[in-house]
Amino acid sequence: MNGTTAQRHYQNVLQVFQDYYQLTKPRIIPLLLITTAASMAIASAGKLDPLLLLLTMIGGTCATASAQTINCIYDSDIDYQMERTRHRPVPSGRVQPLHALIFAIALACISFAVLAVFVNLLSALLAMSGIAFYVGVYTHLLKRHTPYNIVIGGAAGAIPALVGWAAVTNTLSWTAWLIFAIVFLWTPPHFWALALMIRDEYAKVGVPMLPVVTDNIATARQIWRYTLVVIPSTFLLIYPLHASGVIYGAIAFILGAIFLKKAWVLLQNPNDKQLARSLFLYSILYMMLLCAAMVVDSLPLTHHLIETILALANIIRG
According to the model, what pLDDT value does residue 11 have? Predict the structure, then answer.
């Protein structure tokens, strides 16, 4: 084999790996995993077993990747019609649907095996329910048939929080369900901001996203209403659940204030795609930093630091 042929073969192998990697929509996965980590941190009171975290992340990654791959197969027809998605592996023809399906099934099997064997059965079953809900309910039943697809479909993206809690405790508590609810309520304003940005593309392929079937004003109004609900809900972790404390509360307050401001500005200018883009990008940062705050607040070191500060304050007052 000459050098040119060897180089071409090497490039082809790399392209195959890259195509299958792209099938999983890898940019979505970290955001889902950080909700898992946050839930695990609170469930373990900040004393998280690194191996348990790693195994849960592996299982969660494979489950999410499986669901996204099946979504790529199912939506390949509309992906081909949109310039933004036309070059994805399946609509472009670089990966055959059958091969992608085999890949998705393999990922689901790996996810279930890792979680069931090394974590617990409840977390494995929850991960599988996430795949089933995302594919069966959101992608098949809702996405092409109702403008409120993402409202109900958002439950699929919130399930990783339940997986994380179950991984640590092998149960589900009110706190776990609240974290689920926070992600669930955050999803519509996050996704509708994106829909405002690419409204014309959704209209072109007949996907009835909210701004397509109503208008930008109605969509911005819904974004504002959901934001008014999700921001207060984040403080329920402090009271009445007492799952998080002052550090989380301070960060959640600042992040929430910025979110409300951006949603309000968009409400005043619903046709401004740059404002929609700004809200969309911030919503991602918001969820990542909010979950990071949950983790930091749960750490024993944080609790010790707060106790020390309070003790010093009492000495100064005293």
Answer: 53
